[in-house]
């Protein structure tokens, strides 16, 4: 498809990245979710073989990468930008979690460019960087160890953006065609008859056992073909009774 | 806090991992989301320095790691297990996306162990491995490049499990006492034996039929008592063969 997806309007910006492997891994994470626009602000080492290696099949993203010397340049023409932080800070920005933040960004990305800004591996984003963004997104994490790998943080946000894009689509349709009421009743009758014939079920007080069976198979939401299989087994087993 | 979290009941199983760095990165991804139980099935290289390096502060997870030679060992005593795949396959189990799957797993993890099974980096999971699980989870991805890095896939699932934990504090529908892996395997073995004895199943080509059966009962999430009932029926029916 050559139509523009809202994900084409989403820019990932990595600020002052130390390890080039993380740049490659971020590119791969982006591509798996359908993102393609990557900006770097003053990377320590790039281009670099480690970046290429970790990108695997996402080297096309590395080839189109934009390298900037300042955040303003990377944010140019965006209509909404989010600073991604491990811990929400006591700043005046609106704070979203990853899911809410992705939804909010995508609302805007349907029309215009938006950006997600990720800080350096160890030091994170500076206050000055955060203050250039309109919102803060915080990825919920273990309070005792909230240090996501940079590419993992990109992966989670890219995943949430994709989920925000597809979440109103139809659920995956069920496989096979469901058995109808009549087919199920014939199955239960068949099962009951075989159970009585084999002395497993006492016809004087059958109710509770058959209820359990109905509940069990009711939960499974049997398909037509499955009912045929089960009845085939019962026929084979019942032959000698 | 020393109380048991449902996340303590979530087991991550990595099958036949090639790159030890991915094991370390998976451990870090788990720890950032509060998971701690990691199992390996026949890793190519472990323990290994690359694993330690990528784990950063999650080496405690590597130290407690369980190494198994077979999937059955890793799945022991779990009540629900999910195969994580990039693409949903044709004849398989109930399919969930990452979000729905995490919610379903967490419902069970409040009481008992559950597992997420990840395949080898290049080849993924085998059909035999998938068929031992009760559900399939597929991480929505770019159809043109769906190859998430192994640790990134672990990160997304761990993140969704954490989100499932924190987002809904609503009442959870009661679950009976779920059958565990071992009880289910005994049921399948019993059923297979009776089907062969009654000539319903040709042991020369048993695979497809047993897969259908596993899929059907996998969807039903059998309870202990239900397994007893089904095996009771099989015993009664099998008496004269």
TrEMBL record, chains A, B:
Designated name of the protein: tRNA (cytidine/uridine-2'-O-)-methyltransferase TrmJ
Known catalytic reactions: uridine(32) in tRNA + S-adenosyl-L-methionine = 2'-O-methyluridine(32) in tRNA + S-adenosyl-L-homocysteine + H(+); cytidine(32) in tRNA + S-adenosyl-L-methionine = 2'-O-methylcytidine(32) in tRNA + S-adenosyl-L-homocysteine + H(+)
Protein family per UniProt: Belongs to the class IV-like SAM-binding methyltransferase superfamily. RNA methyltransferase TrmH family.
Organism ancestry: Bacteria, Pseudomonadati, Pseudomonadota, Betaproteobacteria, Nitrosomonadales
Transmembrane parts of this sequence: none
Top-level division of the source organism's lineage: Bacteria
Limits of the tRNA/rRNA methyltransferase SpoU type domain: 10-159
Any single Gene Ontology cellular-component annotation: cytosol
Recorded GO MF terms: RNA binding; tRNA (cytidine(32)-2'-O)-methyltransferase activity; tRNA (cytidine(32)/uridine(32)-2'-O)-methyltransferase activity
Keyword Nuclease assigned: no
EC category: transferase
GO BP annotations listed: tRNA nucleoside ribose methylation
EC number: 2.1.1.200
Key words of the record: Cytoplasm, Methyltransferase, S-adenosyl-L-methionine, Transferase, tRNA processing
Gene name in the database record: trmJ
Protein localization: Cytoplasm
Subcellular location, principal: cytoplasm
Function: Catalyzes the formation of 2'O-methylated cytidine (Cm32) or 2'O-methylated uridine (Um32) at position 32 in tRNA.
Xref: SUPFAM superfamilies: alpha/beta knot
Quaternary structure, from the entry: Homodimer.
